[in-house]
Amino acid sequence: RADGRALRKLPVHVGLVVTEEEPSYADMASLVVWCMAVGISYVSVYDHNGIFKRNNSRLMDEILKQQQELLGLDCSKYSVEFANHDKTGQVLNCQSTLKVLSPEDGKADIVKAAQNFCQLVAQQQRTHSDLDVNMLDNLLSSTNGFPDPDLVLKFGPVDSTLGFLPWHIRLTEIISLPSHLNVSYEDFFSALHHYAACEQRWGK
C-alpha cells in the first residue's frame, strides 16, 4: 500500500498480457496480488491461447493461496468477475476486480457489438448516425463496467499484444517485460514507477 501511495499516479486498470506459450499460474497470481496490494482497482489477465480463462478456477486457487500468504487477513471479500459474465464465488477483496480474458473478448466482441447495433438500426430503435465512441463502448460486453486500461504489462518476446482488447487500448501505456516467469516484485514496481513518470499527451 505504501508503495502505491508513493507513486505520483497509479493506474486504475492494469492489463497483464502474456505472449509466452507456457503460462505460469503461480507467477500470474503473484502479479494479480501485487496489483491488489498497491491499490489498483481493476486487473485484466490475458493470454492469446485463452489458457487462463479456460482454467480460471486453477488461477483463482493460486490467487487465494498467495493472498493469504502475502496479505494475510488484510483483505476480506474480493469479488471476481469473468468476461463471459459467469460469476465465481466471493473470494478475497482489496477493492479490486479481476477479469480473465481471451481472444474472443477482443475482435469477436467488436463484431458482436457491430451486429447488435445493426439490429437496433433495423428495428428502428437507433439510426446509423447514433454510432459514436460512447455507443460502441456501451455495446462491448467484455469490459462492461471496466474502464479502459491505463497500463498494459506485456510479458514475453512477441512485439504485439496479440488481440488484447484492441478497441480499449488506443490510449494505453504499454510496458514490455522479458517474461512473467519468475517475475520479481521489483520488476513489477519498476514498471509502475515508469508509468507514473510518463507524460501522456493524448495525441497532442
Automatic annotation (TrEMBL):
Q: Name one process (GO BP) from the record.
A: regulation of intracellular cholesterol transport
Give the reaction(s) catalysed.
n isopentenyl diphosphate + (2E,6E)-farnesyl diphosphate = a di-trans,poly-cis-polyprenyl diphosphate + n diphosphate
List the Gene Ontology MF annotations in alphabetical order. ditrans,polycis-polyprenyl diphosphate synthase [(2E,6E)-farnesyl diphosphate specific] activity
Keyword terms of this UniProt record = Angiogenesis, Developmental protein, Differentiation, Endoplasmic reticulum, Glycoprotein, Lipid metabolism, Magnesium, Membrane, Receptor, Transferase, Transmembrane, Transmembrane helix
| SUPFAM superfamilies the UniProt entry points to | Undecaprenyl diphosphate synthase
Assembly with partners or alone: The active dehydrodolichyl diphosphate synthase complex is a heterotetramer composed of a dimer of heterodimer of DHDDS and NUS1. Interacts with NPC2.
Instruction: Identify this protein by name.
Output: Dehydrodolichyl diphosphate synthase complex subunit NUS1
Q: Which domain of life is it from?
A: Eukaryota
Q: Name one GO cellular component term.
A: endoplasmic reticulum membrane
**The protein's role, per its UniProt record:** With DHDDS, forms the dehydrodolichyl diphosphate synthase (DDS) complex, an essential component of the dolichol monophosphate (Dol-P) biosynthetic machinery. Both subunits contribute to enzymatic activity, i.e. condensation of multiple copies of isopentenyl pyrophosphate (IPP) to farnesyl pyrophosphate (FPP) to produce dehydrodolichyl diphosphate (Dedol-PP), a precursor of dolichol phosphate which is utilized as a sugar carrier in protein glycosylation in the endoplasmic reticulum (ER). Synthesizes long-chain polyprenols, mostly of C95 and C100 chain length.
Query: What Gene3D superfamilies does the record tag this protein with?
Result: Decaprenyl diphosphate synthase-like (3.40.1180.10)
* Keyword set includes Repressor: no
What topology does the record note for this protein and the membrane?
Answer: Multi-pass membrane protein
What species is given as this protein's source?
Prunella fulvescens
Q: What is its EC number?
A: 2.5.1.87
